[in-house]
């Protein structure tokens, strides 16, 4: 049996992110991987061939550090690791940094969400906590490699942490699906995929649909968790009951049918690092219209349509403009699809393994 380099992954859940799960599956073919999760994970959801160490959900955070750190050191003494990779600065990056120093190993940190944001309006973001801000900055400074999901997120790192170091923009990406023809029609079918959380700004989403219905027939399908009675009351208050379907949670493997049926993915967040659903929509030939955050900000005008956060009238106008200019709709749809094809999961794996290789020189000699 050929011995493979041994890499430890640190984070919360990890396999709960479908794109990351796919990436781990591919990486597991090249490397000996172990996941150290700060949240209890169903072993059946972990890709085949990857080992799992997880901490109980209700355990105190300091005890989780101690437990997972002990697991790692035990595993490392039995069969040494060659590299550490943390998903998010806290708590995974904190533990990876400590263990990297103790064991004299390099560690990579990937920022995936709100670790470098501070929004007082919602409130949202790790940087609202002063202690967490200091911890996050130290982890980002000391990481052997720091990667983020978008240029927008990289700018947030530099601005909010006053950080001056190399930052690698390396978004998660799916494999593109076969191209399908898609004709605009009425009602215009909008799709929104996100869990219900203040950062997703669902008030803007509903106000946008309310504004659109005055100009054209429209229907919105919402997929995600935690859409309770309060949200349904907001829909009722605007008289949108007949225009919105709340689908609830849908297995990721069954999302393709919704992408195939939709004309436009609408994303209204106050902040995003990526978001993954936007790239998945592009890989399925669905035009993305949303707020100027994450990769939507990076791709504005060429590969998607972007407006300022919380401007529902601008978003409604932008969607209407795309609908009324069929050539523009098709150009955006095709350009985004081609971009994902050129920067898909294979490209991500090629780039991340290039960084891995820098710290694995001499392995197997």
Biggest sheet features: 7 strands, parallel
What gyration radius follows from the Cα positions, in whole Å? 21 Å
Terminal CA distance: 16 Å
The CATH homology group name of the largest domain: Glycogen Phosphorylase B
| Helical run tally | 13
The dominant shape is globular
Report the portion of residues in β strands: 15-25%
Low-confidence stretches: none
Order of helices and strands: EHEEHEHEHEHEEHEHEHEHEHEHHH
What is the CATH topology classification name of the largest domain? Rossmann fold
Helix content estimate: 40-55%
Give the count of structural domains. Answer: 2
Mean pLDDT: 94
Q: What is the C-level CATH assignment of the largest domain? A: Alpha Beta
Instruction: Count the E strands.
Output: 13
The side-by-side strand order for the widest beta sheet comes to: 3-2-1-4-5-6-7
CATH architecture of the largest domain: 3-Layer(aba) Sandwich
What do these coordinates show?
The protein is an alpha/beta fold and 365 residues long. The chain is built from 13 helices and 13 strands. Helix 3 links the parallel strand 4 (83-87) and strand 5 (107-110). The longest helix has 18 residues, at 61-78. The model has no long low-confidence stretch (mean pLDDT 94). It is 41% helix and 16% strand.
